[in-house]
Automatic annotation (TrEMBL):
It comes from the Bacteria. It comes from Streptomyces phaeolivaceus. Residues 19-78 form the HTH cro/C1-type domain. GO terms for molecular function: DNA binding. InterPro entries: Cro/C1-type_HTH, Lambda_DNA-bd_dom_sf. SMART domains: HTH_XRE. This is Helix-turn-helix transcriptional regulator.
Length: 93
């Protein structure tokens, strides 16, 4: 039996949109963010990131954590509804 792809639900779509908003707020190209994620040990191409942002590829928990780290936010921020600029949720180091 062939595995069927699972539909991406509202939380996944919301997360995809928040990732795109944060990336653009920071002035990063998809290629730059994908490189940051890869440098953190989670290999990601700009094509993979593009598909995540368009909700055409599932963002698994490891992707979510690495993307949050590369964007300097908590993973919880990526799961919440983006309202206006998301820069107020930047992690303090």
């Amino acid at each position: 039996m062939a595995a069927r792809s699972l539909e991406i639900g509202p939380a996944g779509i919301r997360t995809a949109r928040t990732i795109e908003i944060l990336r653009t707020e920071r002035g990063l190209a998809q290629r730059e963010l994908a490189a940051r994620v890869s440098a953190l040990g989670r290999p990601m191409t700009n094509t993979m990131l593009s598909r995540i942002e368009r909700a055409q590829r599932r963002c698994d928990i490891d992707d979510l954590v690495a993307l949050a780290q590369a964007l300097l936010v908590s993973p919880l921020v990526l799961l919440q509804e983006a309202e206006g600029p998301v820069t107020s949720f930047v992690q303090r180091r």
